[in-house]
Amino acid sequence: MRGGRLLRMLAALGLTSAAVAATGTPAAAAPQPMGRCTSTSGAVLAVDFSHWGGPVLRSCGTTPTTGYELLNQGGWSTTGTGHDGPAFICRIGYSGFQRGRQYPTPAQDDCVLTPPASAYWSYWHADPGARDWTYSQLGAMLYKPKPGSVDLWIFGGTDIQGTEGRPKVTPDQLRAHNTRPQGDAGKPASTHKAPTLPPDADTGPAPERRTPPPSKTVSPQQKQGPRTSEKPKAPKPSKSPTGKPSTPAPAASRTGTRVVNAEPAADAEHDAGSLLPVATGAGLVVLIGGAAGYVAYRRRRAG
Amino acid sequence: MSAVARTTVAAAPPATVPGAGGRRLPRTLHPVAWWVWALALATAVSRTANPLLLFLVLAVLGYVVTARRTEAPWARGFKYYLYLALTVVAIRVVFRAVFATGITPHDHFLFSLPHLPTPDWYAGIRIGGPVSLEALLSSATDGLRLACMMCCIGAANTLANPKRALRVLPGALYELGVAVTVAISVAPQLVQSVQRVARAKRLRAARAHGTKALRGIVVPVLEDALERSLRLAAAMDSRGYGRAGTATRRSRRVTGALMLLGMCGLCAGAYGLLDATAPAFLGLPAMSAGAALCVAGLRLGGRRVTRTRYRPDPWSLPEWAVAGSGVLSAVLLFANLGYDPAQLNPSFYPLTWPGLPLVPTAAILLAGTAGSVAPPPTPAPAPAFARRATTP
């Protein structure tokens, strides 16, 4: 009785708070072809599948967005863990890579508990102009990539000192280098929009307001061809003590880090499964429960 | 002569052939068999987060407990384990709702809790906010898994006689076992004592409510407990409890040192196995060295205690069958043979009906056969056949 009233009060409280709370502006994040990202606009998402023999896939999304939204649009999809919810990225898949299979596979990690620190998707950022990666201090749902930044997900282990498990590619290999959007500039970029968030959805701290510099002041280094990074380049060890600007060396390639552009694709179809197993399971439970009830009844009558 | 032969023929089949309409002789199963069965089932449960399989495990536990529990005080507690399980699920769901784990645009929005803003340096933790159906369902399943494991332990506690279970301890731990037996029989004895005093008060038409009435119950109960423990101590003393026997001081010291070192080794081994960054020698080597030291200490300590056993519990076919059915179900759930491992841990993001993989279902039903394989603990409720068999 009291519990019911408490529940009703809680529900009423929740509803009023939902009504009162200012609804945030609906996120207008959208997937884009890679050419639409420039050095000052759009956020580049890169996922390293080299652990499973794949390339580093690179795609582009509009800002403002969250790291989670970047990973769940245009054919990308993630799975959380049963323990932590969808905010903990346990599996990542892209519909254009291995037919949308998500990695690590269920045989490698069941994604029930938080994965171990020796084998998980670690999250790295490179702000515009940054030459090295920084380990994300926020989760994918809370972090808001800045325009012109790069988000990288790599699978493996890291340690607390930050000496192990750093990315082998440099931000410059993945960054968009063109100064203005390429390709289908005229038409709207894509129709694969993320649905609007529910009211009062917490999307984390606001992104830093950054005034985009006028395109005249772009440094000559950024004026390379639009797709230079498509060719394999020498991955520069990011732990270089002298932070020299990475000069792109088109020769001297190293195997293992292929960068491939992942164009926006339709999301994989979701199959809601069949009701038959649930009915069978419920029938079995009722059957065994009934047997237990019958045994208890006979015992009570006899005793 | 012929009469003797006739009675043995008439009495023998019910004891050995459980199938042919006969009833087996009631006896309690070896407690270790129940514990092996329950722990194996708990291990199997730890492998899956499929709500269908978890509910099936709960149903199987309920059936086996109702069919094979005794009427002893400890055998009536299974429903309290079920309440505890319900509490675990509720706590898990509430925590998941309060410490929001984020909502995605594809989720089914249910309601929103007031959001407590946290400063930027604490942005990793969110309190309150929107709650989705998916979050509640997955947290309830997660809680249900823990609840199922607790119910497995509860079933073992209900089915196995704790006093007889302590008998299988090695001789060196005999004194510890006696202490534990005394400790676990305190609560039922207190309850009995309170009931007796309350009944006596009612018979004398004394006041049944208020602080005075409470004092009238507490004081006699405490007096009763003190008297009982003094009697127990005298009885244990007269039976030679705590005597050092023929052990010399040196052998006792060696035993103590072996046990201490062995325990340290076990602790270090557990730490090394769980922490991936620990040095390699801390893992299995330390674990096995610790176990060896412990076994040596127990052997050495057990040598000075000679105990005879009155009516030892037999370990025969039903014991093998019960323990084996539990172990086999755990093995089947860990073997990953004949089914998709993803079906053991279905995801609720996006909402999907869970599947019912065939092999794990069969494994859990196999564990449920313990309810009929084990001998009945009390005489059968239908006495017709028994009467015919015993009175020829």
TrEMBL record, chain A:
| Statement: the UniProt record of this protein carries the keyword Signal | yes
Signal peptide, first to last residue = 1-21
Domain of life of the source: Bacteria
Could you identify this protein by its name?
LPXTG cell wall anchor domain-containing protein
The organism is: Streptomyces pyxinicus
Q: Where is this region: Disordered?
A: 160-272
Q: Where is the composition biased (Low complexity)?
A: 237-253
The transmembrane residues are 275-297
**Keywords noted in UniProt:** Membrane, Signal, Transmembrane, Transmembrane helix
- The yes or no answer to whether the keyword Ion transport is present is no
Composition skew (Polar residues), residue ranges: 216-227
Automatic annotation (TrEMBL), chain B:
- Its main subcellular localisation, reduced to a broad class, is membrane
Please give the PANTHER family that the UniProt record associates with this protein: COBALT TRANSPORT PROTEIN, PROTEIN ABCI12, CHLOROPLASTIC
Give TM segment ranges.
52-68, 80-103, 172-191, 254-274, 280-300, 320-339, 351-374
Q: How is the protein disposed in the membrane?
A: Multi-pass membrane protein
Q: What is this protein called?
A: Energy-coupling factor transporter transmembrane protein EcfT
Q: Which domain of life is it from?
A: Bacteria
Compartments (UniProt record) = Membrane
InterPro entries on file: ABC/ECF_trnsptr_transmembrane (IPR003339)
A Pfam family this protein belongs to? CbiQ
Keywords in alphabetical order, please: Membrane, Transmembrane, Transmembrane helix
